[in-house]
């Protein structure tokens, strides 16, 4: 008798059973029981049969039995199984509530695209925060729409130069609504994001088309006003150095631009989507397949739903649209949800997170239709929750010239920058104006002092890391120049690749090397691909890395133009093939 009591005590000490909880958070008539290590299968079977429990199945990986038990006999069965000493735990098969959020918007059930990107699951984590603003570059927005107006913040009209951005074309209103309406308000539709605000940046209206100059102006305006996410549902087949420069400017400020792939069912690159530092968005349909109207190609980054998207309509109503115009703000809004969880993410970290957590719907891995896959809001915001944010500032030192030095002619500004993770960009400014940049340390910037008046000037070098942290160093110098007349242009040549080269043999990343010399000094060398500015250097060696993944098949022209300090210029060009 004493031995029996000891065994029973030991078994009960390692056995856990939770009494039936209140409410309906468990499956009636079902238990979960794990046999203890070393318990014989025969003994366990006899104990189950004696108690009246029936084995339904076993979770083999964790050795847990799923048991069917008459609900009225539940307590008696549990007591008998506990007394056997053969189980490490016995518990109810509980019901876990989904973290998915169902909004009160009456048309939510018709918005198939929200479930497709797992937006309701993401809303259990975040519905967006007002400080993360989505800049929508389009035809403005309907400020009188009851389901959109509460989520609008003052933007800018680049046609009139005012802050009046009332939409009269309709496209901008519908694009904006697919990103972020005033959701869960018992009215109309739900947006991908509820709490992120929309900044309308108007570049077209019912009579005026969208010009690159206006779009570029809108991009830089958004970046300068703290907008981290830009959505552009505009496209064309002509590349633009102006647009690319504006996009790079925004990228360097931590702003990510999402752009529509276009609706031509073609692989022809559309811009700005096919440019660098842009998230090119193609369209998927309700079946999770590629939308037939969407453009495609190696320049696509991600996909998002773009067919039968129910959204806000100019005039206060609602309508269903299709096109990559709607895939783009949907993807952009996912990016805004991610930044709502982790605002400190850098532009590159945000894009990488979206790509790595996309649903791979096409060919396994990257493909020309879905890119890295269809955006998944839930997986993205979950990943953002575990992403780390770097808050350590880079350190910068300027070794030459020294503070207070008197300088003339062309001088070299040299020094180093360091960071706990890594320096991503270095900018050199004179009197507060950025004149050159570099990607790594140590740095060496060439400065022609003939471009500045004699007297005092401030030289500053600022380093940034991937999280957007910056550090800087400054020196003051005195310029003392004698004016020299120069009419001789530089001598320019392309060193690599060779004329007529096949990019297939060179590789995806092509390094373009150029040579430029001058009788006085070379002030700048610019490298163009098919007449679109790719890189600019102010000091030798002059080089540029060209990722040809998004380049079309056929001939491509590389041109190098060099300027001297007097404004004289010369060019060299060649043709290569993909």
Key structural traits:
single chain; 578 residues; alpha/beta; Alpha-Beta Plaits; Rossmann fold; Immunoglobulin-like; seven-stranded parallel beta sheet; 32% strand; disordered N terminus
Plain-language structure description:
- This protein is α/β, with parallel strands linked by helices and 578 residues long.
- It starts with a helix and ends with a strand.
- It has helices at residues 2-13, 41-51, 74-84, 112-116, 119-123, 171-179, 212-224, 241-252, 324-341, 347-356, 377-386, 503-506; strands at 26-35, 54-59, 64-68, 87-94, 133-138, 156-157, 197-202, 229-232, 256-260, 278-284, 302-305, 309-313, 317-321, 395-400, 406-407, 410-418, 423-430, 433-438, 443-448, 455-465, 470-479, 491-496, 509-517, 522-529, 532-537, 542-547, 555-564, 569-577.
- The strands form seven sheets. The chain has a seven-stranded parallel β-sheet, sandwiched between helices. It has a five-stranded mixed β-sheet with strand order 15-21-20-17-18, with no helix packed on it. A four-stranded antiparallel β-sheet has the order 2-3-1-4, covered by helices on one side.
- It has four domains: 2-94, Alpha-Beta Plaits; 110-386, Rossmann fold, CATH 3.40.50; 395-479, Sandwich (Immunoglobulin-like); 491-577, Immunoglobulins (Immunoglobulin-like, Sandwich).
- Helix 2 runs antiparallel to helix 3 and helix 9 packs parallel to helix 11.
């Amino acid at each position: 008798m004493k031995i029996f009591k000891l065994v029973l005590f030991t078994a009960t000490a390692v056995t856990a059973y939770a009494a039936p909880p209140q409410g309906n958070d468990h499956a009636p008539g079902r238990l979960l029981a794990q046999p203890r290590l070393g318990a014989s299968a025969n003994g366990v079977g006899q104990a189950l049969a004696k108690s009246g429990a029936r084995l339904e199945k076993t979770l083999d990986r964790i050795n847990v039995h799923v048991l069917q038990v008459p609900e009225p006999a539940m307590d008696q069965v549990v007591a008998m199984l506990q007394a056997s000493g053969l189980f490490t735990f016995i518990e109810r098969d509980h019901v876990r509530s989904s973290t998915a959020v169902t909004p009160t918007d009456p048309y939510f059930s018709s918005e198939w695209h929200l479930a497709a990107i797992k937006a309701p699951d993401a809303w259990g984590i975040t519905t967006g925060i007002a400080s993360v603003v989505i800049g929508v570059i389009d035809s403005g927005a309907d400020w009188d729409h009851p389901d959109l107006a509460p989520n609008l913040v003052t933007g800018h009209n680049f046609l009139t130069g005012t802050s009046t951005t009332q939409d009269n074309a309709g496209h901008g209103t519908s694009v904006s609504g697919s990103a972020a309406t005033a959701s869960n308000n018992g009215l109309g539709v739900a947006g991908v994001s509820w709490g992120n605000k929309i900044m309308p940046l108007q570049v077209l209206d019912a009579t005026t088309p969208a010009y690159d100059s206006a779009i570029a102006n809108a991009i830089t305006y958004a970046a300068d006003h703290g907008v981290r996410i830009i959505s552009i549902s505009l496209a064309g087949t002509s590349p633009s150095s102006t647009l690319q420069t504006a996009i790079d400017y925004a990228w360097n400020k931590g702003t990510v631009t999402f752009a529509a792939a276009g609706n031509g069912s073609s692989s022809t690159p559309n811009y700005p989507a096919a440019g660098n530092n842009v998230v090119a968005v193609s369209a998927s349909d309700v079946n999770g397949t590629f939308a037939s109207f969407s453009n495609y190609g190696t320049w696509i980054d991600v996909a998002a739903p773009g067919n039968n998207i129910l959204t806000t309509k100019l005039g206060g109503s609602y309508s269903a649209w299709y096109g990559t115009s709607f895939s783009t703000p949907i993807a952009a809004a996912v990016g805004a949800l991610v930044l709502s969880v982790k605002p400190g993410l850098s532009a590159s970290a945000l894009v990488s997170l979206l790509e790595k957590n996309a649903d791979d719907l096409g060919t396994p891995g990257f493909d020309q239709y879905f890119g890295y896959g269809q955006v998944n809001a839930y997986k993205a915001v979950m990943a953002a929750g575990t992403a780390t944010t770097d808050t350590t500032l880079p350190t910068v030192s300027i070794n030459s010239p020294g503070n207070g030095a008197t300088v003339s002619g062309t001088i070299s500004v040299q020094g180093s920058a360091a960071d706990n993770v890594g320096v991503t960009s270095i900018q050199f400014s004179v009197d507060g104006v950025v004149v050159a940049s570099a990607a790594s340390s140590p740095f060496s910037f060439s400065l022609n002092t003939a471009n500045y008046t004699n007297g005092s000037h401030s030289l500053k070098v600022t380093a940034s890391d991937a999280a957007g942290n910056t550090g800087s160093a400054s020196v003051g110098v005195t310029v003392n120049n004698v004016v020299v007349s120069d009419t001789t242009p530089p001598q320019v040549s392309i060193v690599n690749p060779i004329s007529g080269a096949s990019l297939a043999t060179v590789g995806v990343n092509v390094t373009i090397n150029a040579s430029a010399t001058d009788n006085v000094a070379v002030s700048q060398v610019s490298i163009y691909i098919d007449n679109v500015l790719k890189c600019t250097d102010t000091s030798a060696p002059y080089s540029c890395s060209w990722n040809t993944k998004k380049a079309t098949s056929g001939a491509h022209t590389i041109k190098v133009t060099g300027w001297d300090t007097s404004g004289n210029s010369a060019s060299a060009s060649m043709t290569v093939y993909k």
